[in-house]
Structure formats: structure tokens, C-alpha cells
Amino acid sequence: MVDIRFPWRVSGFRYWESLEIHRQRPDTQFFAVEVLPEEFPAAVHPIAEFERLSRDGGITDVYCVFLNVTLSVLGRTHLPSGTAIPGAIPALDLGPTLAERGIRVHAMLYPGGGLEPDTPAEFLREAGERCATVFTNVAEVRAAIPRSVTVGPIVNTDLFGYAERPAGSPIEVTFCHFRAERKNFPVLAEAFNGLDEGFHLNLIGNWEDELHRLTNPRYTFHGLLAPERVAEIYRRSLVFVSCNSEDRYSLDGFPTTSAADAMASGCLLIATNYRADHQTIQSGADYVEVEAGSAQALRRAFLWVREHPQEARAIARHGAATASRLFDHRRVVARKLAAIFGSGPDE
User: Is residue 65 within 8 Å of residue 108, measured between CB atoms?
Assistant: First the structure.
């Protein structure tokens, strides 16, 4: 396993995936450019030690997440034209060692991490030609690398496990994201400002500079929280909202990691489908889809939940079952390991 900063628990899916890979394959070695002093059940080595340990430890395969990490590991961060992959990491260049020892590379290509709306497809084809296995959750990777394996986000279903929501008022709505323009906080604020005392907003993340947009006082700003505290808030929330903007800012997969976590825990997901992705979860069955950029549509969806409580809870239950089936960390890791090594449990 090769990463930039690790172990970094707040990164969520990357940490949970590494933890589960360690459980299913205890012989895995972990490397990072920046080794953080967080608890992890295995040693994490500086990337500078890779050459020595690949020789002494018999490393046969490397797995990494994101396009910029993958191409940096391969030493293929520039096209012949000189164009560089966004976020290239020179310290990760393992190209000569990989070639000398015949070490295979496997990659999970999520949006972001070098894969942006205007990233040249040549970079994807470079990864496709040089990686033994490519996993993804986005259409542009599947188009450029037809042999890629479609895999959704990772949910730690031990932590974000399902719990039935009790009836009551106010309806708890949670918005949990790192601050970014594409998260469309102004639309959320406009929609929430038009709601009455029947709703309460839980706001998680580094949004302190955006709070002035909220004129409705019925909210709690929690700031950045540890995963356990996030899970507690999800368990008392009926709704999770993800109102990402449209394709020009589509640096996230669908659903987002936080949305998948919330769904698995039993929240009803109200979301824009900014990638027009219908391969994972289905509107009306697993979540409620709203028009991107429309505060009115988002407010109507909140009010619909109050007016149709049984139907809203039924969709939340179905969405939780879907998330646990498609995104459970144990199943996803087992499927990836089976694809990488050609044996083991699979779905």
C-alpha cells in the first residue's frame, strides 16, 4: 500500500480500506511520503525505504489510490507534450524499482487526485496500459480503460451501521463535507433559511467562514469531528444532504464517501446526481434526487420528507441495505484482493 499521508484516520475510506486490507492480508506493507503519528496495527514505512524492503520483503504488488499517486508511483507524470498530471508527487517515483523487480501496480481511480474534468484522457490511458488492475467509480475512467473494474466507495459498516430512526420533531438534517465550492453551501443555506421550526441542521466540517449565510438559527455547527462523533450525529439524523454542483466541479464520485456512510447508517440521502450516474444507487428507491443548483427544489425535498414520513423512511431503509451491499469495507476489499491476486472471496 502506497499513500501520500498515512495513517490519516480523518481521510475515512482510505484509512478503513487500509485497515481491512491489513486484516485480510496481514503480510501487506504500508508506505507513505509523510508518515503520521496515528495509531495503526502495522508499521508504516517512509517511501524512501521502499527499494530496500521490496528486495528484502519480497513485495510483488503495489496498490494505490488516485490518478496522481498512481502515475507518480509509475514515474509517468508527464505526457510527451510536457503536460504534467495535476498534483504530481516526485517523491513517489518508484518506476526503476518496479521495472527491475517486476512489481505489478494496481490502482483505484476516484475523481480528484489528478482526475479533474479537464485532465487529458492520455493520462488515464497511461495508467490503464501500465497498471495490472484498475478499479474505479466514474464513467470517464471506464471509457478510457474499458477493462477497469467498477467498485464503489468504502463504508466502514461496523462504525456506520444501520439504526432505525425514531419518529419525532424536529427533523434532523445533516450536511457533512470539507469546505469546497462544488459542495454548494449557498444553495443549502438558501433552502434551509426557508424552513420552519420543524427542521434542525447539523453542519459538520470547516464551514465557519460560511455561517453568515444562515439566517435560520435552528442549526448546530460542529466543526471537524472524529469519525465516531460523526457516526453519532448520523444515527440521530433522518436526512443527509449532498447538493454538489454540476459537472464543471465534479471532483467527487457519486455518491460521495460521506453520503455513502450516512446512507449505510440509515439516513435518507437527498442529493443532486451531478454525474448522471445511475449504475450505483437509484433515485426513488435508494435516495431522493434533486435538481442541482436549485434551493427551491432542495427545500421542497425537505418538506416532502415531513409530508411523507413512511415513504421517506422506506427509501432510507432500502438505501441503507444497498449501501451495505455495495460499499461494505469487507466485501469491497475482498473483491479487490480477488481481482488483484486471482483468488479468494468475491461477490
Answer: yes
